[in-house]
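Human: You know discrete backbone vocabularies at least as well as I do. Show me how you would write down a chain together with its backbone fold. No explanation is needed for now; the record alone will do.

Assistant:
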Amino acid sequence: DSDLSMRTLSTPSPALIFPPNCPGFQNGRGSSTSSSSVTGETVAMVHSPPPTRLAHPLIRLASKHQKEQANIDRLPDHSMIQIFSFLPTNQLCRCARVCRRWYNLAWDPRLWRTIRLTGETINVDRALKVLTRRLCQDTPNVCLMLETVIVSGCRRLTDRGLYTIAQCCPELRRLEVSGCYNISNEAVFDVVSLCPNLEHLDVSGCSKVTCISLTREASIKLSPLHGKQISIRYLDMTDCFVLEDEGLHTIAAHCTQLTHLYLRRCVRITDEGLRYLMIYCTSIKELSVSDCRFVSDFGMREIAKLESRLRYLSIAHCGRITDVGIRYIAKYCSKLRYLNARGCEGITDHGVEYLAKNCTKLKSLDIGKCPLVSDTGLEFLALNCFNLKRLSLKSCESITGQGLQIVAANCFDLQMLNVQDCDVSVDALRFVKRHCKRCIIEHTNPAFF
């Protein structure tokens, strides 16, 4: 009976989105809300379309003059849909309860290409079940319009919620579940296996996720057609600290189309994992291995195999990387635009020199907390990287005002300069301000303002 009622009734309650004690849940007359509390848990419910007239005999209908004051009712349907398109999922559900016209407009398929839920107390599994069931009414068991699901920070999301997405949304292209630490490999495998068009996957902070792969059933069934490949191009596994080289090997073998990969704070990754990655994923444009303390110059040699395809690289706080690794990158990755090497204390002026002379199109460079970089390195940057827009030198003990003046005199397009905790004079900062008009200077000198 409960399943039947779910099919016949339509509008998901805002109780799916907010806990029962959230202000604004009750209507103006203090009537019961659309959710109930069982041991403090939000229980999702559904509602039928709102009536066109108020049925209670004691409630008077609005006068003609009062109706004329409701200017929003004069807007055509396409304008209302445009307004609704800016609302998050929970507010859209509320709008569907205002009147019959709003109900019909709020469930326009064009508004349901994205579901966005946030919050630690939301019963996300139930919300996704009810929403997808409503969206599947016209196409039973399949939600063809839904392309994006964002449930970041929803700690109550479990494998059950991802199973719902995997089974009902074959056209899914983007999934973000960052910070949802209760999901496991099995649920992720189901999503990537049943959603063949998935291109963007963010599982950052999901500590139980150690791999991305097809299920065994999908591998057997789809291998003749897909070659066991997953179409993911963007993968963020930041803070998946259980990920190891073997898991990265499996990811690389299945996700050969990767162009953006972020492995920040995946502390178990080593140079061997990067070797696996470069064997299969030769199209990577952006790569982050910041805070991966076991990555060394040998890993940089592997990354350098990406050659001119690599545009963005973050190796921040990888203490085993020295000038040798920087030389590998500079020699082969000539089209590098962004490099974050903050905290790589083995980098010296020689590494910066080689980088500046070979990666002349560099636009953003962070070499903060590199105590061996001095004004000599800045001079090489200034004379070769004229397109530099962002430069961070935070806590570079050997930097002085002379090096900054050389940079400012040559890099006129500089837009951001970080010299916090550097021994730089006020005159040097003023010189930068005069020559780089659009530059925002982050500093710790109280005399400069």
Observations:
- Residues 329-448 form a domain with the Leucine-rich repeat, LRR (right-handed beta-alpha superhelix) fold (CATH 3.80.10.10).
- The longest strand covers residues 114-116.
